[in-house]
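Lab notebook, bench 4. The sequencing result for the construct came back, and we need a structural model before the next group meeting so we can plan mutations. Quick request posted to the team channel:

Model the 3D structure of this chain.
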Amino acid sequence: MNLPRLTKARAPLTREVEIVDEHGDRGIVSIPAERDLTVYVDQRELVTLMTLGAEPELLVLGYLLNQRLIELAADVESITVDWEVGGAAVRTHAGIDRIEERTARKVVTTGCGQGSVFGELMAGIERLRLPDTRMTQAQLYALVNTIRVQESTYKSAGSVHGCALFTLEEGGEAVRMRCFIEDVGRHNAIDTIAGWIAMQPAQELGGARVFYTTGRLTSEMIIKSAQMGVAIVVSRSGITQMGHDVATRVGLCAIGRATNRRFLCFAGAGRLVLQPELAGSRQPAAA
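Done. Here's the predicted structure in token form:
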């Protein structure tokens, strides 16, 4: 398979600014370096994404895949990002069929930074077929701990979301983090991971996939996870009603409020192999 040519136009993830605290003391702190990136497909302006710019080419590729504007990474010839003009130029091999019609209706999502998705995102979700993935409670705890110790922009600057792709090791309780991305919105982070997956040789990405996000599980996040062949999604936040409905419809396991040894499985509990003895003693109810 001929993969697209990508530039490597990474941008600084943070910048330093002067602050004044509650005591009147001045100091310097780091904040996320949000910037706009306008995407052009075959010289046609498509959308402007607000992003940190960690992996802009993968973000653009994953965005096109998750919006179902392209079927495969190989549909794209090249993605060129130029931060001086804040643009990403996408060149496809054969154009995008009915692009004007398919991008005419935009929906503003609940994602941070008000992400936009096109109206066809919900179409065809009934045809999604997820792998027969099972995860043990021990693997869930290992995943959460891996995220806890991960060095991140959030720890140094805050105000960003993080997403990660894990694979489950066969015959054991281990998990392996394959890709970790932070951005101003969780929708950008998951799109970047979709782009990363599309650029990997199939034999290099073995094992059952589990997706983690720091943000809430909305319908957009559930659909995009399912499109990436992910059957289990974990979040440290909660889930929306539509996110729950979609997860139930496609048979996806949605786990939220996952911190330390606590979690709530909102949907697809059959995919989670419970080991309640690992959870420790129950906390007494508040008086």
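Residues 176 and 215 are 21 Å apart (CA to CA).
Will bring this to the meeting.
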